[in-house]
Structures are given as C-alpha cells and as structure tokens.
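Structure first, sequence second, as always.
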C-alpha cells in the first residue's frame, strides 16, 4: 500500500540520489576523501580562508557567506578546497531575467502529449493516491514531470554543488561590478543598485540550498561531488532543489527511503509541494498560477504546465 502522508524523516528514512547515473542504495558509502588535508578546527579553517583566496579556489566570498549563515567552517573549507571544484570565475547575470514562451513550446507537440498520456496510464495508481491525499490532479503532476525532465529522461549531469555555488556567488562585489561594466558596455540601461539587489536575491535563494545539500550529503555520508542534476542545481525527476527535497520528499512506495529517481516518490513529492503552497480542488486559474510560481518563477513555465494539464485532462486527440 502506498503511504502518502509520510514525510522524509532522516531518523527513519535514507535518501537515494543519482550519483553519475547510478542510484545510491547504500547510505553508508563513505565520501571520497578530499584532496587536501582537513583543517583542525573552525578557527583555523576561517583563518585559512582569510589569509588567501587561493585556499578556497577563489570562492572566499561565498564561503564567508555560508559560514555566516550557519555553515560549519571546517566542512566549508574542506569542500571548497577540493580540486574537483572548479576555480571561481566571473558569473554573468541579468537584473531582469525573463523566459520566452518559445522555450517551452515543444512540450505541447503530439509526441510529448502522447508520452504523457501513456505515463498517466502506467502510473495511474500512484497518481490517484497522490490526488486523494493532496488534491493535486494527475494531469498537473504529469505536466510538471514532463516539462521538468521529459518524464525522467533528462535529469542533468551537472555537479549540483558547483551549479548552486555559481548562482549563490554572483553577489561577490567584484562580480557585481564586472557585470555592471559588461552590461553598460553593451548599452544596457542598468544601475549598480539594480544588480546589487538582484545578486542579493540570488544569494538569499541559493546559499541556503548549498547548506541543505551539505546536510543531505553529511547525514547520508555520500560524496557531495557525485550528486548530479541540472544547470540550476536541481535534481531528480521533479527537479527539486535540496531544501525542497528535505521539506517535501515523500516515501510513497514504502521502501524506507525517499528517492526523486522513483516515480511513486516523485509523484507524491510534487503533489505534497503544491499542496503545501495551497493547491486544492476548485482553484481558479489565477490561484493555480500563483501556486505554480513557487515551483518555477517563470510566466512561460507556469502557462506551459497549465496548458499541458488542460490537454491531458481533456483527453482530446492532438
């Protein structure tokens, strides 16, 4: 029987993550030893960070941000000194990012919709159980999984830690200044204050995700550098960020672990996420859009998910 109400509890469940194409079944796997000597204590770690940027491969600003937010300085020094992490380099970003609807148009073609309908038939029990527990329709859940990873086919092979670090580190003052000069040279009408505000938003959003990923790796003794996902640092079939995994992951198949590379778990986790933000039956289109905005802050994304859900619900031929 599928248990829909059980949240991920680290005291009773273990986590399964994709590690270079594999699913980790044994949570006792010892993490790969870092290629540098571990600092002896927090004071020594922070002193080393302060002495020279090269000790943390140019990530000094981010490491300090993470330490101020409660990260363990010893762990942070060890991770950001690891030679598997590329050196920090300039990170371009925009103060007013916007996605085009054209980016998502192909998800509504005949083949994609047909694949989604086949998926709904195959996983009808898991989808029905989630709908009963969380009031999120099978069509909406399937639509999200289709847009996020083409129903599990494309989950990403990027190192999640590095991708999260790249986004969180845009707030480095030298990086903000570099972007300001770059955009002004290109003729963009942008102020330094706009870029500073946008960089702080990205730091506030993604620095906690790094700490959440460190927590996942630490508690399960997995090698953080082998956790793979998208260019935005999300992973699994539903492309959750680490904090969403910790908050909304559900062990729906009852195997004693939460895996975002299990369709029953992924289906229930998506439903739990939406339900948490207020999804119920009978919502208006505007209310649905507002809730989906928490999943991806993109009008094009939200519109696409709802359009596909409408197609799947109607069951009309394409």
């Amino acid at each position: 029987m599928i248990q829909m109400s059980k949240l991920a509890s680290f005291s009773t469940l273990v986590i399964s993550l994709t590690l270079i194409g594999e699913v980790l079944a044994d949570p006792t796997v010892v993490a790969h030893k870092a290629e540098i000597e571990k600092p002896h204590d927090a004071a020594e770690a922070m002193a080393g960070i302060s002495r020279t940027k090269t000790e943390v491969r140019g990530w000094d600003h981010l490491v300090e941000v993470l330490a101020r937010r409660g990260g363990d300085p010893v762990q942070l020094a060890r991770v950001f000194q690891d030679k598997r992490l590329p050196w920090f380099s300039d990170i371009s970003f925009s103060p007013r990012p916007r996605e085009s609807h054209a980016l998502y148009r192909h998800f509504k073609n005949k083949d994609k919709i047909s694949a989604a309908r086949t998926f709904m038939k195959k996983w009808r029990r898991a989808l029905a159980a989630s709908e009963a527990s969380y009031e999120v329709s099978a069509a909406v859940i399937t639509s999200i999984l289709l847009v996020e990873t083409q129903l599990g086919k494309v989950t990403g092979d990027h190192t999640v830690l590095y991708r999260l670090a790249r986004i969180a580190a845009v707030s480095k003052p030298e990086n903000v200044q570099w972007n300001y000069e770059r955009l002004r040279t290109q003729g963009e009408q942008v102020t330094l204050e706009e870029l500073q505000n946008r960089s702080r938003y990205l730091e506030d959003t993604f620095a906690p995700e790094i700490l959440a990923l460190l927590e996942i790796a630490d508690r399960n003794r997995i090698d953080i550098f082998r956790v793979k996902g998208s260019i935005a640092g999300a992973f699994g079939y539903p492309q959750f960020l680490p904090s969403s995994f910790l908050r909304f992951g559900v062990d729906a198949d009852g195997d004693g672990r939460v895996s975002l590379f299990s369709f029953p778990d992924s289906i229930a986790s998506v439903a739990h996420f939406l339900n948490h933000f207020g999804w119920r039956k009978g919502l208006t289109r505007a209310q649905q859009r507002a809730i989906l905005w928490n999943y991806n802050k993109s009008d094009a994304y939200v519109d696409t998910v709802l359009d596909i859900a409408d197609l799947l619900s109607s069951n009309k031929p394409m």
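Margin note: The longest strand covers residues 14-16.
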